[in-house]
C-alpha cells in the first residue's frame, strides 16, 4: 500500500500542524504501519517508535503525528528535536522552546513545563533522544504524571523504558515500496525515470542488498546521474563482497547502513568528502553564508562551496529545507556521524569548531548592534532559528581551555535575546555557567568579557524577581569595572542597580542611580535599546515621586529616538508610560491606542513582562470606559501571565496601585460574584488569545452581565496618583 499525498500536503489536505517538518518530497509506503501506530496512540499515552538508523523513524513519526492531530482527541501537536542537544541540562530548555513557552521566572524549568502542560490535550513528538535517554526518560515520566491530557510519541533507536510505554519497532520498507522510493527519488534527478523491464530487476536487487532501508535507498538513488542501475548494483555488490567475503553473506542492518553511507562517501569527489566532513560542525540547520565561511578554504575555495553543496544535496547527503523565502540545510544524524568521524581523522575538528564559534560569535555581535534598528523582529527570528548553533558555540567556549572568556562574551552579547524575547531562564543558565568559571591569569580583555556577563546576569535576575543574586552580580561588576577603569561596564552596573531600586520601591536611590548611569552613557557615547530603557525606568521613578510631566517629557524623547532608529522593543515601554499619562488626563481613546501598540510589540517579541503590564493598564482604561466586566476579564488574563513573569507587579506598591484601583472599582460595579466570574473567564485565555482580544483581532464570548447603576470613575480627577503612590510607569 502506498501513500499518494503530495509533499506539501498534510493529512487529508490539511497543512502540517504545529512545528512538524514540511515534507519536500513524496511520502512512500507505510500505510499499514501508520494505521497501526494511530491505534497504538489511541490506546497508550506513551508510544516509542524504535528502529535502526536510516529506517525512516523521524519522517514516519511526523506523518503519524500529522494524521493523529486532526482527530478530536488533540488540541495541538508539538515536536522537539533533541538530536542537536548535546547536554542533558538543555533538554528542558529545548522542550520549552518547542512549546513556545516563554517563562521569565527563576522557577526550575521542569516545574514550568509541568505547570504549562498540566491541563492541555497535546500530542508531543520527542525525536532523537537516545544519547540523552536517562534524562529524557525521567522527564517523560514526570510530564505524563502531571499532565493527564498529554500523549507522547517518542522516536529513537531504543525504548525509553518508562512504565506504560508501548514500543513500536519500525521495520524497513517492503521491497516493492523500497523500489518505488528509489524510482521517485531518481525521477527528481532524472526527469522521466521510471521502473520498467530494462531496469526493474537491478533496482529491486539494489534495494534488497540495502535491506530496504529508506536512507540507504535514497543515497543510492542519488547516484543515478553518474551511474546506470546495473553499474550501481555492480559497485555496491563489490563493496559488500569486501565486507562479507562472498555475495551470500548477510550484514546486520546497522552495518548495512554504514556500508551504504561509506560506499556513497567513496563515490564522492575529494571536495565533496571534505565538505561533508566539515558540515558536521553545525548543530541542526545552517545557511549558505555560514557554510561558505566556516567550510571554505584549505582545499575548498569558498566560492565553490555552493556547487559542492548542491552535489551533496543531489546525493541525499544534505537535506534542503525551506521556510518561506529562506533556504537552510541539514544532515541526517547517521550521515552526520559518519562525516564527523572523517573530520576527526583529518585532525581538523578543533579548527573547524573554532571557525564555527567565530561565525556565530560574529552573528551574535551583529545582531546585538542590529537590535537597535528597524530589523529588531528579523534579529529575534534569526537568533531563534540559530539557537542550536549558538548553544554549540557556547558549549565549546565554556568547555575548551582558554576559551571561557569568549563564552562569557557570547552569553553577554545575547542579552537582547534573553531579556527581550522571553528567554530569561536559558540566558541565566549560560550566564551563570560563564561567570562561575575562572581562567588562569586572565588579562584585562578577558576580565571585560566577564564584566559584560555579570551585568547581564544581574539584569536577567532582576527581571526574574531574584533580587539577591542580582545585587551580588551587579556589585561585583561595578567594583571590578571601577578597578579596571571600564566606564561602559560601570554605567551598566549602576543602571541595573537603579532598576533594582525602582522595583523595590526605593525611589530616591533609583532616580539617583539611573541619572548617574544615563550621564555615564552620554559621556562614553553609548546609545542603544538598553540605554533608552534606562531613560524609561527613570521616567517611572520620577512619575512615582510626583512629576508626571517630567516622566512624559522623558518618554516622548525616548519615543522620538526609537522612531528615528526604528526601535520597537523599548518603544513599547515608553508608550506604556505615555498611555498612563493619557489615562490620567481622561484621554481614554489615546490611552487605548497606545496600549494596543504596546501589546502588539510585546507579542511580537514574546515579551511577557511588557505584555502583562500593558494588559493591567488596559484593564484600568477599560473600566474607565464603563466596561467593568471586560476590565475584570483582562485582569484575569493578566493574572494567568504573572506566574510566568515573576512576582505580580514586582511586589511594588507603586506598580500595584492601578491594579488595586481597577479591581476595587470593578468589584464595586459588578458585585463580588460577577467580578470573580469574569476574572475566571479571563484566566482561561492563553497570552496570545488575551492579546488578540485586547487589540481587537477577535474576542471570545463572555457571560452576560447585569447592568449596574453605580457610576465608574473615568478619570482620576479626584486623586493625585503620584503623590499617593498610585502612578505607574
What's the CATH topology label of the largest domain? Answer: Serine Threonine Protein Phosphatase 5, Tetratricopeptide repeat
The CATH superfamily of the largest domain is known as Tetratricopeptide repeat domain
Give the percentage of residues in beta strands: 5-15%
- Using DSSP, what is the number of strands? 7
The CATH class of the largest domain turns out to be Mainly Alpha
- Give a quick account of the main beta sheet: strands, pairing sense, barrel closure: 5 strands, parallel
Q: How far apart, in Å, are the first and last alpha carbons?
A: 64 Å
In quaternary terms, these chains amount to: single chain
The total tally of domains equals 4
Which spans have pLDDT < 50 for at least 5 consecutive residues? 1-18, 242-251, 706-712, 716-729
Residue share in helix: 55-70%
- Number of helical regions: 34
Would you mind describing this structure in some detail?
The protein has 729 residues and is mainly alpha-helical. It has 4 domains: 11-169, Rossmann fold (3-Layer(aba) Sandwich), CATH 3.40.50; 175-267; 345-560, Serine Threonine Protein Phosphatase 5, Tetratricopeptide repeat; 579-724, no CATH class. 62% of the residues lie in helices and 5% in strands. The protein is built from 34 helices and 7 strands. Strands 2-3-4-1-5 form a 5-stranded parallel sheet, with helices on both faces. The protein has a two-stranded antiparallel ribbon with strand order 6-7. The longest helix has 22 residues, at 349-370. Mean pLDDT is 85; it is low at 1-18, 242-251, 706-712 and 716-729.
